[in-house]
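Private note to self, pasted from the team thread so I don't lose it. C-alpha cells:
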C-alpha cells in the first residue's frame, strides 16, 4: 500500500511538472512574440509607417474606410520614431518579465507560480468586460486560456501548500 501511495505522489508531481512546463513554454512564447514585434517596429524608424500600413490594408483586401482599418490607419498617422522606440523598449521589458516567469515555472519555483497568478489574474476582469461588451472568438479564447492558466497555477499552489501542512 505504501509503495502505491508513493508512486501516486511521484506520478502527480511529474504531471504538475509537465503542466508547469507547458505554461512556461506558453509564457516564453508570448514574450518572444512580443519581442519580435517590437524589433519589427524598429524597422519602421525613419520610414513612413502610415504608407506601410496602407499597403498592408490593401494587401489584405480591406476597405480603408471601414471601421477597424480606419482606426489602424489613423493610429499610424500619429506614430513618431520616439514612440516606436518606446514601444520597442516596452516589448523588451515584457519579454524579460515573461522569460523570468517562464524560467521560474520551468524550475517549479513557487514565486513564479504566484507571479503567474498575479500577472495573469490582473487581466481577467478586463477580459471579462471585453467579452461581455462584445463577445468575439478571439476575446473568448484569450479569456478561456487565461482562466485555465491562472486556475492551474492556483491548483498547483494549493496542492503544494496542502503537502506542506500534511
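Design output:
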Amino acid at each position: 500500500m505504501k509503495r502505491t501511495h508513493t508512486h501516486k505522489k511521484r506520478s502527480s508531481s511529474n504531471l504538475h511538472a509537465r503542466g508547469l512546463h507547458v505554461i512556461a513554454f506558453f509564457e516564453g512564447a508570448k514574450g518572444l512574440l512580443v519581442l519580435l514585434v517590437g524589433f519589427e517596429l524598429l524597422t519602421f524608424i525613419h520610414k513612413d509607417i502610415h504608407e506601410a500600413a496602407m499597403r498592408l490594408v490593401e494587401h489584405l483586401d480591406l476597405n480603408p474606410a471601414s471601421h477597424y482599418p480606419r482606426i489602424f490607419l489613423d493610429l499610424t498617422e500619429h506614430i513618431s520614431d520616439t514612440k516606436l522606440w518606446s514601444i520597442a523598449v516596452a516589448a523588451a521589458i515584457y519579454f524579460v518579465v515573461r522569460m523570468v516567469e517562464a524560467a521560474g515555472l520551468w524550475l517549479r519555483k513557487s514565486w513564479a507560480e504566484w507571479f503567474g497568478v498575479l500577472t495573469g489574474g490582473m487581466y481577467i476582469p478586463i477580459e471579462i468586460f471585453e467579452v461581455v461588451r462584445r463577445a468575439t472568438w478571439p476575446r473568448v479564447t484569450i479569456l478561456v486560456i487565461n482562466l485555465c492558466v491562472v486556475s492551474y497555477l492556483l491548483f498547483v499552489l494549493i496542492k503544494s501548500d496542502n503537502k506542506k501542512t500534511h
